[in-house]
Structure to design on (128 residues):
């Protein structure tokens, strides 16, 4: 369930940047930021070895929930995923030997808790 993309795809995405859609919509921007944050958190959970089936289910539920509120072109979704993956790569590399353990404890555990809590709320509400 890894969301890393090959560097060739990254180069292609960066070269083929779509124009902003609805540039004045702060609501759209907030949803896109929330999606990118969810992608980032899942990548962190994977890097830290914290991605379980339940965490993955919470992640998928959160993505589905966020996407229902706004139309998201595939090109934009790919850009959000790539940006999230790049951010995780940079942060992981920045911590050096064993420094990532604190990062995993802080960011990874928080991501896992967020996805599990979202999953629990949806299950309690009867969302399949």
């Amino acid at each position: 369930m890894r969301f890393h993309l090959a560097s060739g795809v990254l180069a292609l995405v960066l070269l083929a940047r779509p124009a902003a859609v609805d540039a004045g919509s702060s609501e759209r921007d907030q949803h896109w930021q929330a999606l990118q944050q969810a992608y980032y958190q899942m990548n962190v959970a994977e890097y830290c070895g914290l991605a379980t089936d339940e965490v993955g289910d919470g992640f998928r539920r959160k993505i589905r929930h966020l996407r229902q509120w706004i139309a998201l072109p595939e090109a934009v979704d790919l850009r959000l995923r790539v940006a999230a993956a790049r951010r995780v790569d940079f942060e992981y590399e920045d911590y050096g030997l064993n420094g990532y353990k604190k990062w995993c404890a802080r960011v990874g555990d928080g991501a896992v808790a967020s996805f599990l809590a979202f999953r629990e709320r949806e299950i309690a509400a009867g969302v399949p």
